[in-house]
Amino acid sequence: MTPRQIMMHKVYGYFTTSCLSVVCKLELADHIGNSICSIEELADLTRCNENSLYRMMHFLSSQDIFVEEDNRKFRNNSLSEVLKKTSESSINSYCQGHGSQLYWESWRNLEHSIRTGEPATKSAFGVDAFEYMKSDPETASTFNKTMDDLATADANVIQKYYDFSKFNTVADIGGGSGKLLSFIINDNPKIKGILFDQPHVVQNTFSPNITNQFEVVAGDFLSDIPVISDLYILRHILHDWDDERCHQILSLLRERMPKHAKLLVIELLVNKDSTLSTAKYQDLNMLVMMNGGRERSIQQFENMGIKAGFKLCQVIPLPTEMNIIEFQPI
Ligand SMILES: C[S@@+](CC[C@H](N)C(=O)[O-])C[C@H]1O[C@@H](n2cnc3c(N)ncnc32)[C@H](O)[C@@H]1O
C-alpha cells in the first residue's frame, strides 16, 4: 500500500469501531458459536437486512475478524471469539460502550481537549463522564458492563499473581459492580469483601450470591472513605483524576487505613518509548472523557504515594497489560 492508502485506512478507523459495536449488540459471534453460519441464517436470527449484514461481515473478515467461507458463510476465529458475550475474555460490552453516544460525542469534540486541556465530554454534554452517567442510567449500566469486561479478564489472572488468602477483609474502592471482588471472594471463601462506590452505582450492584461475605458501602471517595480493611484495591480509579484529586483520594484512604494494611493500585503504566500500547490509547481517552484523568508512569505513582504517606512495596506486571502496584502506609 502507498502511504496515502495507509493513511486513508487509518482515517477509516471509526468504521471498524462502529461495526464492532453493532456486531456485539447483535451478538453475531455468539449466534455463530462453533458452527459455520450462512448470512441468511444470521440475518434471520438478528432480524437484519441480509445484504447489509453481508457487506459488514465481508468488511470485517477482510480484517481477520471472522472467517468468510464459500457461499457467504462465516465462522469465528480467535479475534471474533472475544466478541462473544460468553467468552472468558469477552469484550462484548466494551465494544458496545465504545459505540455509545457518550463515547462518540466526546471523541467528536477531541479538538476542544487539544486546544484547552479540558475534557471533550464537557464540551459535548456540559459535564464530565461520571457526572453525565449520574443522569443517564442506561449509559451508566453500559459503562459498568464495559468495566466488568475488563475486570473479568484481570480477575482471571490477578489471583495467580497476588496472594489474597492472607487477608481477612478486602475493600474495593470505586469497585463498580463488584465483579473483581466477587472473583476474589469466590476463590477465598474466608475473606469478607467490602464494595465502596457511588450510591447510583451500588444500587445496581452485581449480586454474587454470597451476601454475608459482601458488604456494600455507598459514598464519595473525594469526601470520606469510611472503610476499615486489611487490603484496599483502587483499580482503574487514579487514572480518572488529576494529581490533586488523586492525592485527596489517597490521603482520605490513608487516614482510615490500619497501619498493617496494604493498598493495591491496579493500573496501566506509561513509559517513554514510542511503541503503541493500551496505555497510550487510554491516556488519550482519559484526556477526552475525564476531568484531569491521565495514565501515569511508575515514578509518578511512587511520588504520589509518598506524598500521601505510602511506601511502594512492589510492582507486578500482569499479562493483561495492567500492573499491580502494592503500597503500604509509612
Ligand atoms: C473506571 S471505573 C472502575 C471500576 C472498577 N474499579 C473496575 O476496575 O472495574 C471508576 C469507578 O469509580 C467510581 N467513582 C467515580 N467517582 C466516584 C466517587 N466520587 N466516589 C466513589 N466512587 C466513584 C465509578 O462509579 C466507577 O465505578
List the ions, cofactors and other small molecules found in this model. Answer: S-adenosylmethionine
- The assigned CATH architecture of the largest domain is 3-Layer(aba) Sandwich
Q: Tell me the CATH superfamily of the largest domain.
A: Vaccinia Virus protein VP39
> How large is the share of residues in beta strands?
15-25%
Number of helices: 17
Alpha carbon gap, first and last residue: 56 Å
Domain O-methyltransferase dimerisation: 11-83
Pfam families: Dimerisation (PF08100), Methyltransf_2 (PF00891)
GO molecular function: methyltransferase activity
InterPro entries: COMT-like, COMT_C, COMT_dimerisation, SAM-dependent_MTases_sf, WH-like_DNA-bd_sf, WH_DNA-bd_sf
Structure notes:
- The protein is of the alpha/beta class.
- 48% of the residues lie in helices and 15% in strands.
- The protein folds into 2 domains: 85 residues, Winged helix-like DNA-binding domain superfamily/Winged helix DNA-binding domain (Arc Repressor Mutant, subunit A), CATH 1.10.10; 163 residues, Rossmann fold.
- The protein has a 7-stranded mixed β-sheet, sandwiched between helices. Strands 1-3-2 form a 3-stranded antiparallel β-sheet.
- α2 crosses α7, α7 crosses α12 and α12 runs parallel beside α13.
- It is globular.
- The chain starts with a helix and ends with a strand.
- The chain binds S-adenosylmethionine.
